[in-house]
Specification:
The protein has two helices and no strands. 55% of the residues lie in helices and 0% in strands. The protein has a domain of 39 residues. The longest helix is centred in the last third of the chain and has 25 residues. It starts with 18 loop residues before the first helix and ends with a helix.
């Protein structure tokens, strides 16, 4: 039987790459993770808005 691809759950509405997924890609943090998470979620929301702007504009 061929290997079946693992299904990734769809991100929550309003996100492109959820924090839970991004934190796995980053090295261990020594500072305040909540500040990094807050900034990531802000930039991710901007990316989501930009992508939707492109979708509806063209």
């Amino acid at each position: 039987m061929p290997d079946q691809p693992q299904s990734n759950p769809a991100p929550k509405p309003g996100t492109v790459v959820p924090w839970e997924q991004k934190i796995k890609e980053l090295p261990p943090m020594t500072g305040r993770e909540d500040l990094v998470k807050q900034q990531w979620e802000t930039y991710d929301a901007w990316a989501y808005t930009y992508i939707w702007h492109l979708v509806v504009s063209f």
